Amino acid sequence: MAGRVFNPVHSRSWQDERRSIRLTAMPPEPLHCWLCDRPLGRRVEWHHPVPKSRGGRATVPVHPICHRTIHATFSNAELARLGEEGEVLRTAPAIARFVSWVSRKPHDFHAPTARKR
Question: How far is 48 from 38, CA to CA, in rounded Å?
Answer without folding.
Answer: 18
